[in-house]
């Protein structure tokens, strides 16, 4: 058992080491260079049905999943057979109907407009937890428009998730609040959607989600110049 656990940890290390470098995916005739945010590792090579199902729950069936990344710590735990925390994770997808075709500037603008339709005006509550407690479970609330450019748009949202049961029946359930950003980015005539998720415990988590999103978008644009 100890030997198997050592091997699993070694495989996890090798997986993380390989995931640290950018990689390419083919979308039609285009090769798009992808990379995960710092501290994250793509889970594709793990070929885990459990992780594949989790990724599929985060996006529409009409999208092709290009990467689904967990924190390095969660990947190590997963490959060692330990429970993962899933406090932060990211995903990148592209519409299946457009992945082989060149997306024009006009098409991308239409996609961006559609993604932002019916979101309402951003709310900036002084107390985010108190605000989310007043909202229905599962409702996505727009907090901010992080980026609004011709080739990239990003929005920040938050929701209250179903409470997590405590470890004992007398400990009660623990409320959870989820922050997430959605970015639509125009890369080499292809439209990619990036999502960054993070549980909210303090304002530092809000800052992390916002900063990670901005840096990820900038890095992928740098890796894929027009």
Short structural description:
This protein is α+β, with helices and mostly antiparallel strands. It has one domain (2-223): 3-Layer(aba) Sandwich (Protein Transport Mog1p, Chain A).
Sequence-ordered SSE layout with sheet pairings:
Elements: H1 2-19, E1 23-27, E2 30-34, E3 40-42, H2 49-57, E4 63-71, H3 72-79, E5 88-95, H4 105-115, H5 128-133, E6 141-148, E7 152-165, E8 173-187, E9 190-199, H6 203-223
**Total number of β-strand segments?**
9
Q: Treating each run of at least 4 consecutive H or I residues as one helix, how many helices? A: 6
What is the CATH architecture descriptor?
Answer: 3-Layer(aba) Sandwich
Give, in spatial order, the strands making up the sheet with the most strands.
3-4-5-9-8-7-6
Helix and strand succession? HEEEHEHEHHEEEEH
User: Total domains, how many?
Assistant: 1
Strand content: 25-35%
Q: Give the CA-based shape.
A: globular
Q: What is the average per-residue confidence, as pLDDT, rounded to a whole number? A: 88
Largest sheet: 7 strands, antiparallel
CATH topology: Protein Transport Mog1p, Chain A
Which residues form runs of ≥5 with pLDDT under 50?
A: 1-19
Q: What structural category do the secondary elements indicate?
A: alpha+beta
The Rg value, from CA coordinates, equals: 19 Å
* Amino-to-carboxy terminus distance: 51 Å
CATH class: Alpha Beta
Helix content: 25-40%
């Amino acid at each position: 058992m100890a030997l198997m656990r050592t091997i699993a940890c070694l495989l996890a290390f090798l997986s993380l080491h390989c995931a640290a470098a950018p990689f390419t995916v083919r979308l039609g005739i285009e090769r798009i260079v992808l990379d995960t945010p710092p501290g994250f590792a793509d889970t594709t090579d793990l070929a885990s049905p459990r992780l594949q199902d989790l990724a599929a729950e985060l996006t529409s069936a009409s999208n092709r999943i290009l990467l689904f990344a967990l924190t390095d710590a969660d990947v190590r735990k997963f490959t060692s057979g330990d429970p993962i925390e899933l406090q932060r994770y990211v995903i990148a997808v592209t519409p299946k109907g457009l992945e082989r075709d060149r997306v024009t500037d006009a098409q991308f603008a239409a996609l961006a407009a559609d993604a932002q339709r019916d979101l309402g005006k951003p709310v900036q509550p002084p107390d985010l937890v108190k605000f989310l407690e007043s909202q229905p479970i599962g409702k996505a609330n727009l907090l901010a428009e992080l980026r609004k450019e011709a080739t990239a748009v990003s929005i920040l949202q938050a929701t209250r998730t179903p409470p997590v049961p405590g470890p004992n029946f007398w400990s009660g359930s623990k409320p959870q609040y989820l922050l997430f950003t959605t970015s639509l980015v125009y890369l080499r005539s292809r439209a990619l959607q990036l999502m960054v998720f993070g549980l909210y415990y303090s304002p530092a988590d809000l800052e992390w989600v916002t900063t990670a999103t901005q840096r990820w978008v900038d890095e992928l644009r740098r890796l894929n110049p027009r």
